[in-house]
């Protein structure tokens, strides 16, 4: 098994983050720093991270949670500014990490898991996992603005991919993305001087927010994990 997958299955980090840890020299094999990305971990290898031995977690032991992130909560495990994070809501004792982060002001569906391989599949752009949001805006969009947004616009020197955009009622819209750049929806709408008053993610791949209330979580079903 390749080193980055080994780390992901052990719950150390997502596969993408594991590659960063390897490149930064934070992983040791048999007491020596190892930066070779494609290294195949052998049965007798002693892999360590932050001085602790890394052991793979068997598939059935992994945890998968749907979580309703409230607004005003940081969607990372820790925060250098000391703000409240999603970990205040997790009552387990395993090393979970967030999948599909939301910005501080946004709310809605996130996933917490110990399974780095699953996290990789849910977040890497090549898998094109759909994410659905409800957005309350400070005004209605014109037909021409909606057309431009659907086709993709340029933010941060990057042309966004086409999106799904549906007018639900008054100033509320449903937005569907297959990518998820930092504050993407807010930045796209800001090009038209439109402010997002409230943004909620209601779906992430097969997983739906459903009847969860802010701060609540539930285990994913087997079908949602597949």
CATH architecture of the largest domain: 2-Layer Sandwich
SS strand fraction = 25-35%
Number of domains: 3
**Average predicted local confidence, pLDDT:** 93
Structural class: alpha+beta
> What overall form do the CA principal axes indicate?
elongated
Give helix % range. 10-25%
Please report the first level of CATH classification, the CATH class of the largest domain.
Alpha Beta
Summarize the structure.
By secondary structure, this protein is an alpha+beta fold. It has helices spanning 3-9, 15-23, 116-123, 143-151, 184-190, 222-225; strands at residues 27-29, 32-33, 47-49, 52-53, 64-69, 97-99, 107-113, 131-137, 154-155, 158-159, 164-169, 172-177, 196-204, 207-208, 217-219. The protein is built from six helices and 15 strands.
